[in-house]
Amino acid sequence: MTISYEKFNLKEVINASGRMTILGVSKVSENVLAAQKFGGEHFFEMSELSIQTGAYLAKILKVEDAQVVSSASAGIAQSVAALIGEGSIYHAYHPYTDKVVKREIILPKGHNVDYGTPVELMVQQGGGQVVEAGYANMCSKEHIQMMITDRTAAILYIKSHHAVQKSMLSVAEAAAVAKAHKLPLIVDAAAEEDLFQYIELGADLVIYSGAKAIEGPSAGLVIGKKDYIEWIRLQGKGIGRAMKIGKDNILGFTQAVEDYVENGSESGDAMQVRLAPFIEDLNNIQNIEAKVVQDGAGRDIYRASIKVSGEKSAKEVIQELKAESPAIYTREYQANNGIIEFDIRSVNEEEMNKMTKRLQEIMN
């Protein structure tokens, strides 16, 4: 059987947008594919597969326990449900029951973002009630503290480029507040590259996307306190049933984490070396001014940034880049300012040449 873009009448895609869900996030390695194949070709006691892969990952990541879930979004919903239910099987079966009133999840206002779906929707799916702390441009320890009540179930912190970066308390500060008030702290670090630091900073549960920095298959990972992870597993009898993950992806993702910890990801220095000839070529195109910029959230990620001038707007250029095959997807967040960014983590030299050629055609 031959699989191709043509078979399903699909465009080829060059992903210069980053590890984005709308494009399938990332590519997987031969190692990961082999683990997925083993999973697909064999049967398992699924409860044991969950426990044992969790224990294996916990050892690698130096945490108490870990649970592979279907996505980082599922990780948020199931973590919230777990901390509200505190291991109650009744709650797992009745996650929205009026009998449980301790449901408030405190979230910095600037972290209540839409990353493809609203953060607050995932909290609500887990049975939580979002309580925003601080303001869109500022949230301090004191802002978190003043929102704590006897109905507070947890504090949630979103570590993401989508979230407001300015004047926000740090993870360590949020952890200090949580500890002082004997509350669990959940950190959603979906696209983050460091699998160790947030637990070390004091988070009780940390959530990662399987297919972003880790470059695994569709999956999510929750790591942290053993009791809390066991409560998350219990959600398989509740809301987690609708979010279950298959055996092939559990094993593929576990292999991806092992490889990621051993080999790491492309460094910022390496990205800048690869970007240099691309930037030079872009600066030879009329009405384009190109430079290298660092990720807005301070991660060790570097991108090509172009300023578009002349008759065509950045938004028009973006649409023309997507129009043909291969469809070229870029980072569009600053299009209103005439700026387009190219994330090259999933782009090879041949694809960069195709992007340069397309831009030459569009701008001429």
Task: Provide tags for this entry.
13 helices, 364 residues, 7-stranded mixed beta sheet, globular, alpha/beta, 3-stranded antiparallel beta sheet
Could you state the order of secondary-structure elements as H and E? EHHEHHEHEHEHEHEEHHHEEHEEH
- Rg over alpha carbons: 22 Å
Show unreliable segments.
none
Tell me what portion of residues adopts beta-strand conformation.
Answer: 15-25%
Largest sheet: spatial strand order: 2-8-7-6-5-3-4
Residue-averaged pLDDT, rounded?
93
Biggest beta sheet attributes: 7 strands, mixed
Number of strand segments: 12
The helix content is: 25-40%
Number of helical stretches of at least 4 residues: 13
Please give a structural write-up:
- This protein is an alpha/beta fold and 364 residues long.
- It is built from 13 helices and 12 strands.
- The protein has helices spanning 30-41, 46-61, 72-85, 89-93, 119-125, 141-145, 171-180, 197-200, 226-234, 247-263, 268-282, 314-323, 349-363, and strands at 13-15, 65-69, 104-108, 129-133, 152-158, 185-188, 205-209, 220-224, 288-294, 302-308, 327-329, 339-342.
- Strands 2-8-7-6-5-3-4 form a 7-stranded mixed β-sheet, sandwiched between helices. Strands 9-10-12 form a 3-stranded antiparallel β-sheet, covered by helices on one side. A two-stranded parallel sheet has the order 1-11.
- Helix 1 (30-41) packs antiparallel against helix 10, helix 3 packs across helix 9 and helix 11 packs parallel to helix 13 (349-363).
- It starts with 12 loop residues before the first strand and ends with a helix.
- The model has no long low-confidence stretch (mean pLDDT 93).
